[in-house]
Amino acid sequence: MTAHPLTIRIGEWIVGRRGPESGAVVLDRRRVYILPTVPGLVFGAAMLVLLIGSINYSLQLGYVLTFLVTSMAIVGMHTTHANLAQIVLRGIRVEPVFAGDVAVFELTASNPTTVDRFALRFAFIDPAAQPRWFSLRAKRVMAMPSVSTEVPARGDRSLGVPLPAPARGRLPAPRIVIETRFPFGLWRAWAYLTPALTAMVYPAPEV
Fold this sequence. Notes:
single chain, alpha+beta, 5-stranded antiparallel beta sheet, 4-stranded antiparallel beta sheet, 3 helices, elongated
């Protein structure tokens, strides 16, 4: 079912593009996805229990606390999504490396808005380690090296996303996931980017 045409089309629709993207790429709101984290789900369950208890015992202060804290979480959801939206990304270059080293893909993140962006995390997705869809035996995605940065208002930041290069040859950049959990960690917003960069991996020299 992983290779089913419908599954492939759904994956391409989620990514939004059919291959590497060159030039400036704007992470508009249609490209930014958001879901609650595990602490966010626990928080929601706690608020539900608090609401049921307030209804059962007619606790006026319980209502105030429940709706106040829940409204803060909803505002935090908007802040988490806005912390990633409208960021402009550009793939710059990648230096050649030897087999067994780590290739660093240089990107530029620009912030055209008047609001600072905090706790942005960039990491490659290993295609060989991705779990298969609809598989009960799917393994978790292996952790890839990541880098975090902050982008000031009306400013930009240069960063290098590391990628292991185990074999010689050309190493095209796989998909990058950009995520943030700012400010409360209750929500996770993420977007995808496939930069049009290819690293040249030379054979490792003999000792």
